[in-house]
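## tool: complex_structure
## caller: assistant
## args:
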Amino acid sequence: MARFYDITESAGQAATKLYYTIIHMIFLWSDTIVSLLTVLNPRFKGNKSFRRQVSFQVLFTGVEAFWLIGLIALLCGGTVIIQAINNMPNFGVGEYFGKLLKIFVVRELGPITTFLLVMGRSGTALTAYLGNMCVNKEITALKAMGIKPVDYLVMPTFVGMVLAMICLNFYFAIISIFGGLAVAKIILEIPYLIFLQKAFASISMFDVYFILIKSIISGMVISIVSCYFGLTVNNIREVSMVVIKSFVVSGAIRITIKITILALFFRQLFPEARAFFQ
Amino acid sequence: MDIQKQLNNYIIEVEAMTCKLERNTLCRDVSFGLRQGDHLTILWKDGLGKSTFMEICTGLLTNNYTGIVKHYGKDVKHCSSELLMKERSRTGYVFQNSALISNHTVFDNIALPLRYHSTKTNKEIDDIVYQQIEKYQIIDIQNLLPEMLTTSQAKIVAFARALIVDPDILYLDEPSLGLDHESFDFIVDIMKEFAQKDHTITLLLTKSLSLSKALQFPIAVFHNTKLNFNERSRCKK
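## result:
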């Protein structure tokens, strides 16, 4: 039978561990930013592998996920339009399907779906890859050659992941609109022009910035969390565990950041909602 | 005068080092020093912590031991990571398992330290790497990934990578493990060539008597967690 002391001790240990994990992740993030600024300095002549590593990451995270993300975006856009056009007239707001597509798919569903797909596909692969590198002493070999793992592995991954996330999120938004368009034309026989007019008229620069910021935050969270957990592996048995941990923790961090931003800036971001409740 | 002073100083210095891993004592009260031009072979049985000892000597591990490890007169525990990294850019390290980067080809693995540290252009670096590949007779495997290499080939690539930066210090952790006769002779020649250069230092950890005989470096033997020097008192402290 577990004693009260054991439970409090375990809870305390877990809290301490969580605290140190967050602190170390923040340190890794700051080291990565410093490393990036060093590489971007035109007078810096070292680390010539930077571009090669970044392009490899963009290829792996972005280009190879193009078909998968495209298919899901097409399905999301199509499904939302079918449901919207079938049900919205019941509420007397049938003409607002373009706005619904924007709010639901482009602003919310797109970034979160892309985040989950990239985290599940590339983030976990990255954690496993770095974990195996630790086990095979490749990380030690880098250090023995005077190469900082942050400069050589984490920073290019960070840049590649952020770039890939930006591209994938905009790609998702565009494909989801075209998915809706296809459904509207083929199934519901709505003319192209009316659909495109309604869909694009509702998208503003605010939405573009919204997607951009979400992509950058998602890219940063996936790369830093995956690299952090990958680099903490000590033996081969830990690899599978850190892969799961990195997936769960990055999801939790992404949600926490979102809730914090919403709590702090909700009124400034969504003035319509404020007007509605007043 | 300065050069003479530098020659007399220990470049790598280990003082009263005791290392314990969980309940096992790896080594007890080990002291030795290496000056420029010194080459030392340490004979050590398998499975008793050769790689850990080597990582401590190189400053890659700074915990798990008591005592002092100094590089160029400075305690590695108190050196900044920048200084240590800068120093390591002039050292070569051959790992027991070769530790080649798994998603890089042989060419990229050899070019890795130069691409990171050197201020040369990519074209110049590629030329240097190609010369190294020709010297080590690995032209036909230059585009292969490490997983496709045999143990001997991986070891030769690890040597080529360690020596591409023209290092001052060479750390060798069981370099002859899994080598065929031809590769063994080739690697012995490479190590002898390195040792003949002025002011270089070699620290070799091995269990192989044949390798230590072939190289004829001064030998120290680990026995019952103690380091016993058999020859040449210069390395002994």
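## assistant note: The longest helix of chain B spans residues 181-196. The interface with chain A takes residues 55, 58, 60, 81, 84-91, 93, 95, 97, 99-103, 112-113, 115-119, 122, 125, 161, 165, 171 of chain B (CB under 8 Å). Handing back to user.
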